[in-house]
Specification:
142 residues, alpha/beta, 2,3-Dihydroxybiphenyl 1,2-Dioxygenase, domain 1, 2 domains, four-stranded mixed β-sheet, 20% helix, globular
Length: 142
């Protein structure tokens, strides 16, 4: 047996309000849940992007909690990659730069290189310093 897909991906942020604006307004994701001071969740394609205040998620659930989710969280910057076509990657670059967001890297992956199959990636940061990438799925043969 193996999982059929990744259902959720999580990033830990330092400012939930800034993250909500960035992922909602800049990235255009639909907010689907929010608990002030703890988390904000967004739909992204067939999956969900979970943004957490790491400190709040390190607390064990209260004895009366409806959902006994175990403590979790991390420190430091994470990474997440969004899928896009070659044309969309260029449109994203223009959009992000138009909003004053610096593109840290923009390159074509070698093809063929081990398991890589070519494709373009752009890298940038969210307000918490997480490394974000927009890349062509063919990079991984998808």
């Amino acid at each position: 047996m193996r999982p059929s897909a990744i259902l959720e991906s999580a990033l830990y942020v330092t400012d939930l309000d800034a993250a909500e604006v960035f992922y909602g307004e800049v990235m255009g994701l639909e907010r689907i849940a929010k608990v002030p001071g703890r988390h904000v969740f967004f739909r992204c394609g067939q999956g969900v992007l979970l943004l957490f205040n790491a400190e709040a998620t390190r607390q064990p659930p209260r004895p009366d909690a409806t959902l006994p989710v175990p403590p979790h969280g991390t420190c430091g910057q994470g990474h997440l990659c969004f899928a896009a076509t070659a044309e969309e990657v260029e449109l994203w670059k223009t959009r992000l730069e138009g909003k004053g967001i610096a593109i840290e890297a923009d390159f074509e992956w070698p093809s063929p290189e081990k398991d890589m199959r070519g494709g373009r990636s752009i890298y940038f940061r969210d307000p918490s310093g997480n490394s974000l990438e927009i890349a062509e799925p063919k990079l991984w043969g998808l």
